[in-house]
Specification:
Oligomer: single chain
Largest sheet: none
Number of domains: 2
Order of helices and strands: HHHHHHHHH
Strand content: under 5%
Shape: elongated
Number of helices: 9
Mean pLDDT: 90
Number of strands: 0
Low-confidence stretches: none
């Protein structure tokens, strides 16, 4: 029973991501911009089904390896530590990328997609060759192993033309440069007028 409940975590994290994105859009600026919706969907998919799921998988594979293996229908193995640490790295990278620009999001998403889709292929192979229908193999994780990276990569594709977020310092520097450009134009105009007299 606990194994079945635990296997629902990937779906619950998807629901949390969609709920958080809806709240962010609802509370966001009006009119609602397409780029804002895409950004918030990406952010919360990176936070929940990639970031927090990675941390959750890390804890399960490293600290509860026998239970994690049983939920997948596998025997416990030292490789679980490696899988757990890989999930830790992907989870942390995804959490970091959630609040950064396109390049960070793309890098974290490509790594997570390779790992997740590779795991999905193994789950399908185990279903076909071994008849492994354990909740951690053929349950929601099988769906999200493909759904999450596909959704994130599609959203990244749609966001590719969005400008990179600017730091406060960059914005301040750009404002100062615009003031300097304006002063130079006024100076040139004044010199031009002076030359006519």
């Amino acid at each position: 029973m606990v194994t079945t409940q635990v296997s629902l975590v990937p779906i619950l994290l998807w629901i949390a991501a969609l709920a958080a994105a809806c709240i962010a859009v609802w509370r966001g600026p009006r009119p609602i911009a397409r780029d804002f919706v895409i950004d918030r969907l990406l952010r919360y998919l990176l936070i929940f089904p990639l970031g927090l799921l990675g941390l959750w998988a890390f804890v399960g594979h490293v600290f509860f390896p026998a239970q994690s293996a049983a939920s997948i229908g596998w025997a416990d193995s030292p490789f679980q530590f490696e899988v757990g640490v890989a999930n830790l790295g992907l989870g942390l990278a995804s959490l970091y990328a959630a609040f950064k620009g396109f390049e960070a999001r793309l890098a974290a998403s490509l790594a997570a997609a390779a790992f997740s889709m590779g795991a999905g292929v193994i789950h399908v192979t185990d279903i076909v060759t071994l008849g492994d229908y354990a909740p951690g193999n053929a349950g929601p994780i099988l769906i999200t192993d493909f759904l999450t990276p596909i959704a994130v990569l599609v959203l990244l594709y749609l966001s590719r033309d969005q400008p990179a977020p600017k730091s406060t310092a960059t914005g301040a520097l750009e404002a100062e440069l615009e003031v300097a450009r304006k002063a130079m134009r006024e100076y040139r105009n004044a010199l031009s007028e002076f030359g006519k007299h």
